[in-house]
Each structure stands twice: as C-alpha cells, then as structure tokens.
Fold this sequence. Notes:
It holds the Pfam family LEA-2_1. This protein has twelve helices and 44 strands. By secondary structure, the chain is of the alpha+beta class. Strands 20, 21, 23, 24, 25, 26, 27, 28, 29, 30, 31, 32, 33 and 34 form a 14-stranded mixed beta sheet that branches. Strands 1, 2, 3, 4, 5, 6, 7, 8, 9, 10, 13 and 16 form a twelve-stranded mixed beta sheet that branches. The chain starts with a helix and ends with a strand. 24% of the residues are buried.
Amino acid sequence: MDSSSAAGAASMSPPPSHSPSDLPNSTDVADENTPLILRQDGDSHGEVGVEEDSNRPSAISSLLASIKRFGARFFAPEVVRDYAQQAAIFEPSSLSIDSFTSTGIVARVQGDFVLDASRVKKQSTRNIGRVATWIARGVETKPADVTVTLPQYDDLVLGMAHVPPIVVSIVNGRHSRVDILSELTPGPVDGIRRMANEFIEGRLGDVLIAANAEVALKSGLLSFGTQTITHFLDVKAGDIPSLPKYDVQKLTVREIDLPEGERGLAAQVAVVIANKYPVDLTIPALGFEVLANGCAPEDPFIMLADATTESIHVRPKHDVPVNATGFIQKLPQEFLSACPNTRKSPLDVVVGHYMNGKPTTFYVKGSDSPEANSPKWISDLTSGIIVPVILPSSAPDNLMKNFSMTDVQFSLPDFWAEPGSPAAQPKISADIKALIGLPNEINFEVGVNQFKANATIFYKGKELGRLDLTKWQKATSRQAAAPGKSHKDLEVSTHVEKAPLNITDEEVFEDVVSALLMGSDNIRMAVRAKVAVGMQSPLGEFVIQDIPAEAIGGGDGRDLKSLGLKIGNLKITESTPSSLSITAAVNFTNPTKYTATVPYADIHILANDTVLGHGTVRNLFLVPGNNTNAQFSAVWSPSAVDGKKGTKIGRELLSQFISGFNTSLTLKTHPGSIPAQPALGKALESFEITIPTSDLLMPGEPGDGDEKRPSRPHFITDTIMHLLTSTATFTLHSPFSYTTLWITHLNATAFYKGDVVGKILNDGSVKVPPGVSETPRLPVDWSLNSVGYEALKSALGGSLFLSAEATTGVRIDQYEEQVWFKGRGIGAKVRI
C-alpha cells in the first residue's frame, strides 16, 4: 500500500458509464488522487476540466453553475445528512492493531462502504439524497477527531479517535473499499473500568453509544463546510457479546528458588481463548495479579500470586493460545486463617471445591506495575478490571483412598463411667494409613505432619456410629509412585490413641455384633470421613480441612466355636449359706485381628435358661490369637434371681455335674454387662458361650470288664470293699484345686448289673480335700441273698465294676446343698 493509503486515504477508480439507478453491485476503490466529480455516460476515462473539443468548456461551466444553483436551493445539508446517516453501511472485514503508543494504539480498519437508499424511510429524503449523491459521485472528508461517549453515564468518554482523510463513492449501491489507519486514545480509565466490570459481572444492560465529530466534507468542487456529525448506536443487552470462551489445557506447579535462599512455587498455565472476531493484533507482555475470594462476598479479594503473560499474537477468527506464569512466594495469612463462625479458611473452600470435582474460581487483575515495553496506560486501565477465571477440577475420583486402620485396639469404658458421658464411649486405638492421590499438576515435594478426622461408620447403608478422631495426631508421609501413573501418591501414616466411638444406632450395632460372632460370610462396613491434614510445602506449613475419604472394609465373622474357651484352676474365695464366690483361670482364642482392653464386664451364668449366677472380668487385655490365664471371677447363687426354681435347677446341675453327666453352663451378656454402655451389653445378648461342665474336671481313664468307665471323669473313681468288716473306702476326685469339700451325710446303694450289692448310710462328715483323696472306712449293709453280693464274693481278691446311686449333703465353708449322685463303671476291689 502507498503512503497515501498508510495515512488513511481510501482509493476509488473511475466507474464505467451508468445511469443513476443502476450499478448496485459495482465497486470503487478510492485514493486521494482520484477526482470526486466523475464524468457522465460516455466520459468513462477523462477528468473533469480536460478539453476534448471546443464545446466542452462552456458545457462544463454551465453544468457547474447549475449544480451550485440546484444545491443551494434543494440540497439542504440536513436532508443530505439524514440521507447519508440512514443509507450508509460499513461492513468491517478486518481490525488490526498496528502498534501500541504511549497514549493509545494505532488501529487499522478495513471494510466495505456503500450507500443503500432503500434503508431511508422518508421518500422525499430518499429521492433528494439519491439525486444529490449521483451528481456528487463521491465525497472526501478532511482529518477529523471522533469522540465516543456514553450518554447514560453522564457522557462518559470511552475514547477518542483521530481519523485521517477518507474518500468514498456515494452513488447508491456502489461499494468502496476502505483501508485506514487511526490513532485511538482511551478516555479516563476510571469510567472505562466501571463499564468493564459491569460487563464482566453481567450487570451491563442496554447501552447507548454516541459518536461525535466535526467533519469537513468536500465533493469535487463543492465544499459543504464543517459538519457536526453525531451518530447514535443503541446496543441492546442481548446483543452485547459475552466474555470469550476459554479452555484451560494445562496447569503445572513446580518449586523454584527465590532470592535469599527461599523457596517458592511457579504455576504455568496454558489457555486457549476463542476468537470469533476479525481482529489482528499483537498484545505485549503484561503483568497480572491472581486473586482469591475472602471469607465473605463483601470481603476484599486475597492476592495469591504475581503473573505475567508472554507476547500474544491474535489472528482474525482464530483461537488464541495464551501462556502465563504465576509466582507464589508465600500464602497470605488471611487465606489460611479460619473464617469467623467457622473452622474453614478460604484455602479450605478452594481445596474442597477442587477435591469434590467442582470448578474453582480465581480472579485476574491487571498489575499496577507495567511490564517492560508495555505502555503505562495499559496497566492503568487493567489494574482496576477484575476478570473471573474458572479452573476445572482434575482431582482424582477419590483423592483420599485406601483409608485403613490396622493394629486396632478397643477399650471398653470403666465401671464408674456415667452412661451417656464421653467417658462411657468405647474407644479405639489404631494405626491409620491413607493414600492421597496427588493431582498431576503438582510437581513439587509436599508432606503431611499432622492428621485428624471425623469418621462415620455405616453397615448395610445405615449409620452405626461416629468415630471421633478430632484430636491432632502426629503423622509422617512419603511420596510413592502411583501404579500405572506418571505422578506420585502421598502415603500418610499416623497413630490415634483412644479415639471415642459413639454408637448412634443400637439396632445396627446389634446386627454387626451378631454377624461378627455368628460367623457371617460377608461383613462389610463403610467408613466416610472428613480428614484434615497439616501440610508441609515450599510455601510453609498450613492446614487443609475436610478432605473427603471413603473406605470399605470388613471380612468374615467368626463362629463362637473358634474361641476354644477353657476354664480351670477353680478356687472358692468366699461363701454364704446360699452362694459361692469362685475364681478361675480362662484360656481362649481371639479369632479376630483386633486387641481390646476390658476394664470391667459382667455376664450371666445360666442353665436351662435360668440365671444361676454371674461372672466378672476386670482389666482384661485381649490380644489376637491365644490368650491364657485370663482371670475370671464368678458368684454361684442359684436362688438370687429365680428363687426356688433357681435352687432346684442349680441342685440338679450340681448333681449331674458330680455324676459326670454331659452338662453345660451358658455365659451370656445382659444390659448391665458394661454399666456405662447398656447398649453394648444388650447388643451382645445374642452372643452366648456354652461351656461343658466336664471340662472343669480332669480327664478319666477307660476301665475293663463289661461296664466301661466313661471317658469323662466323675466324683467317685474307685472303691475297696472289705467283706469281713462290712466297710468300704472310696477314692474321690474333687473339682476344686484349692478348696475342701465336706460330705455331711450319705445315703448310697451299690449295684452290680442292676442287682443290689449293699447300702451305705452315714451321717458323719467326710472331708474331701482338693485333688484325689480317700475316705475313711464307711459301714456297708450287705444284701446277703442278692445276686450282686454273690458276684462280689466271687471277685474276692480281684475286682469288678459297680454302679452306685446316692443322695448326699455337701458343704463348702458356709454353703450347703443336697445333691444326688449316679455313677457307673466304678472300679471296686474286693478284699477280705
């Protein structure tokens, strides 16, 4: 393009011959050397004023005189101006920024200009305008200054433009290509900032724009003087273009060295901005501030980082790639501190949105300090404009994963704890491990030095209870490669000590305990937690609250048979006429992987669904696997709960017990088992342990003969029959290791194959010390004519096996009871 075009001139070549109403699609390209009054039909190549024959000067002079007279009378400036304003169409094809200056920009505008008479509503204006513009053929403007204002905003000046001379065809339907350079200067920045922020915030309604200019017009030899031109453009709110769409394609945060040996972070972001406009410019490098929301909407934004962009080339109707780098030296305290009436900080809110898959909004504001080679007026303008930038979340589906507890130890409440109080809650100690899936964008070392959480436990979709881990616990962490991924995960380990477990649904708790103890095949419980971690990073230490974590855990239940319960080493410690206090050693197997501390627990001892006593454990510490010599105390008191019924059932059980029958006792919890936690005792009521009473005795030995000694031992093991003195001595096996038992009276009958051998009736006391002992000789009344007695005589010097039935009184210290005894396979030695 030549210098005249660069100065802003438009070019227009002479048109071919035509009439005033034709050639709607013809195009003129104008420059400032083209005459504005063109030749009529037949003069397609000559200029006005060039002599071709002797008649031509007078004809031209007459024509000019006629035009002047006609224009003076009919072409009133108002009519022509109205026609031009209504008929003019300018279609821009390109807008480019040629350069930035210290006060504004130099813009290049290219487009197509045409007058369309059909747009003029008033017929008289349309007719006069068409005749006038056909005669004038073209128009030239002198250099002019255009001021753009907003009448709605007290004539706020948006900017000023210096427009160079322009030459265009004004014949109806004839197109002129326009190519101009114009220097644009923005108006006062405060007003522009206000408009820009209203636009960004979506508060901008209909806008009336006024363009005002003093324009000197000329058409050939006709001069129209300086005209005041005001053009109004009413832009409806729906027609105002929205902020361009953008796509954040990449975000990387890395550690950098800062002056004086400090460390910081650099965030690099790549954004693609949609551009649907025919704009061509190169934006110089700019500086920005990155801001975040404060605690409340009315709070000022919090500055997080300084950012810069590279030089950006905007091509017409092409997406614009933008690369920016932000530098974070230290997170401000107001970003880390908890907001009023809440424990969350602005950082927690940002992280919470990110980890829950919600987009996170930051704000970009122009820096007060311009970058090198960037005009100051740009920073003056942009420093008051705030643009929201929404970063989509790329957090993993489950940021906190593999949340697990190992080496779990349960602690039941103490006996004196008040039900419903914090001291009454069961407590859990455990090693907790969690795997935090770090986002791909993080390319710097981070660590965790403390950990706490609030966890809710669910079973089959129903809430079981809440585990209170709200006390800070020291934690350690390490970064480890994530399987199948290029980035690392963060492994966090911590130990919690006696965290309270608040059972919120007793029925659900009963279901869980039942499933655990009755051998259910599939026990799966869900843990949902809000985790807080103390983070260590190049920016210092800070806390992130409410990281969501979820885990599914559980396993198979354990059948009660797997407990392998054994009770032995019985010792009577106290007695009353109706009760005995007993201690014992208990061996059992803990089939779970958990340990537990039981300060106090009480259980009922039953037979035939009748409470015969209760047992108590204190300060019991259970470990996984074998547990030996656990101390157990019990009170045998059959009449205490069920009176005569209990006494009868207790007497029957003791009789069967000493007779070696297959009897058993049942251990069962009750609501008072753990006084501070009635719900726990109630939940365990379905958990019953049955103990064969024969396990309390030492194993017996099989005998010989036609009646075999049972494999289970009983009270009388052997006897010696003295025929001459009619007496008998018995070998007795006491179930107690430390306590002496007394037989206060005895009424017994001995049988051989169902036939009576003899009877013993003794009212004297017989002492039965612990272990195996022998009674003194007791008198026997032989049944001399019986088959049994004959068999006894036949065994003289040898032995045979007898059966026996007896009723006897027994006494242990103050406790006394009447029992019966039935024995078989009793080895009897017969002596003279």
